[in-house]
Amino acid sequence: MVGVKMAAAAGASIRERQTVALKRMLNFNVPHVKNSTGEPVWKVLIYDRFGQDIISPLLSVKELRDMGITLHLLLHSDRDPIPDVPAVYFVMPTEENIDRMCQDLRNQLYESYYLNFISAISRSKLEDIANAALAASAVTQVAKVFDQYLNFITLEDDMFVLCNQNKELVSYRAINRPDITDTEMETVMDTIVDSLFCFFVTLGAVPIIRCSRGTAAEMVAVKLDKKLRENLRDARNSLFTGDTLGAGQFSFQRPLLVLVDRNIDLATPLHHTWTYQALVHDVLDFHLNRVNLEESSGVENSPAGARPKRKNKKSYDLTPVDKFWQKHKGSPFPEVAESVQQELESYRAQEDEVKRLKSIMGLEGEDEGAISMLSDNTAKLTSAVSSLPELLEKKRLIDLHTNVATAVLEHIKARKLDVYFEYEEKIMSKTTLDKSLLDIISDPDAGTPEDKMRLFLIYYISAQQAPSEADLEQYKKALTDAGCNLNPLQYIKQWK
Amino acid sequence: MAVDITLLFRASVKTVKTRNKALGVAVGGGVDGSRDELFRRSPRPKGDFSSRAREVISHIGKLRDFLLEHRKDYINAYSHVMSEYGRMTDSERDQIDQDAQTFMRTCSEAIQQLRTQAHKEIHSQQVKEHRSAVLDFIEDYLKRVCKLYSEQRAIRVKRVVDKKRLSKLEPEPNTKTRESTSSEKGSQHPSRESEEKPATEEYPEKVPAESQPELGTWGEGKGDDELSPEEIQMFEQENQRLIGEMNSLFDEVRCVCGFSGLLASVIAFPEMVLPQEAEIDSIHQLVVGATENIKEGNEDIREAIKNNAGFRVWVLFFLVMCSFSLLFLDWYDS
Question: Would A416 disulfide with which of A427, A446, B26, B212, CB 3.0-4.6 Å?
Answer without folding.
Answer: A446
